Amino acid sequence: MQSANMLLRRIVRSSVLPFATQHGxxxxxxxxxxxxxxxxxxxxxxxxxxSEKLDLDEWKKVMKSGLQEEVNEMASEPKELSxxxxxxxxxxxxxxxxxxxPENMSEEQLKTFMECPSKSAKxxxxxxxxxxxxxxxxxxxxxxxxxxxxxxxxxxxxxTDETKKSPFVCLxxxxxxxxxxxxxxxxxxxxxxxxxxxxxxxxxxxxxxxNTVRQIVMSESSNRRSVDPFHIHFCNxxxxxxxxxxxxxxxxxxxxxxLITVTDQCYTEIFPKDKxxxxxxxxxxxxxxxxxxxxxxxxxxxxxxxxxxxxxARAKRLGLETAALPLDKYLMWSTGAKNLTLDQMMxxxxxxxxxxxxxxxxxxxxxxxxxxxxxxxxxxxxxxxxLISTLKLxxxxxxxxxxxAKNYPKRYKLK
Length: 415
What we know:
Alpha/beta knot, alpha/beta, tRNA binding, EC 2.1.1.221, 15 helices
């Protein structure tokens, strides 16, 4: 038995141990050899039976299976690496062929690409990655352009600041401010009043009120720079209201220095009713000419956000005369609503006050909304157009067209 034990040790030392040390299995193999030697020592009294050979055979099988598993694991890693390399080569070939393939792909994306069940699925996945990469590049390009524009604007601001510091420009701006303030002060004594009705705060949201205040600020600026400004009145104005807070945000310290009249009273308590005219787009009466003896009222609201007829209902409730601008009379409308902003209304009223010319006044209407200005009423023009359309295939068409060409411009001629 001792001789068998010695023979087993020799076999382990001569053949198995060098192989185990080569593959890093010496630590795992040493306890197995020791247990086998102990098991043989415990069976000294027993005779050599075929079971001992069977145990040795089982041990050999276990050793071979363990070695085979390690060899398979070591061989699987190069296979994965080779498959990833093959996938990258395939993608490079597709890119050269002109297909939508991303330029950079991570290992996770490559594995997902390899796991796609079909070729169409792989194409869709690559197209998705390609579009995602293009969106990222586009966003980066936009950010770079925005950064460049910001830097250019900063450079221009620095240059303008340098020019503003010049003594001549400073003297000119101070002189013009004095002139504008003097005109506004004169208008508070001798000027024609213009009323802004500030009673529509409940009809609008916070954003709409801020837009309205911004338009009124632009209206006040254009009125202050005009040759003959209005005396602006803010009626029905309440302290600590949303209007008040928005005005303080826009004007800051200059709010208390404005040359306008601000009051919480209604305009019917300040001016006689027979001189008041409420300007609203819903009025059935059309304004024919500007009256210097009347006092015009403009509602401080955003027309797009509220229901129609709110300002008209308020004017009727107070028993006031209403009027609408003759937009349909002088403008050929194509698209868009006929509502105007408050600063556009101010420009129109100031031009009418100075020139009494509707063509110059209505130039402040956005040109995207109408085709052109016409000298004759649009209703007559539409009637003629309808007549030509009815006689398009009948007799007398040439005669009607000649008569139409004499009365109206050639661009309205039907072809």
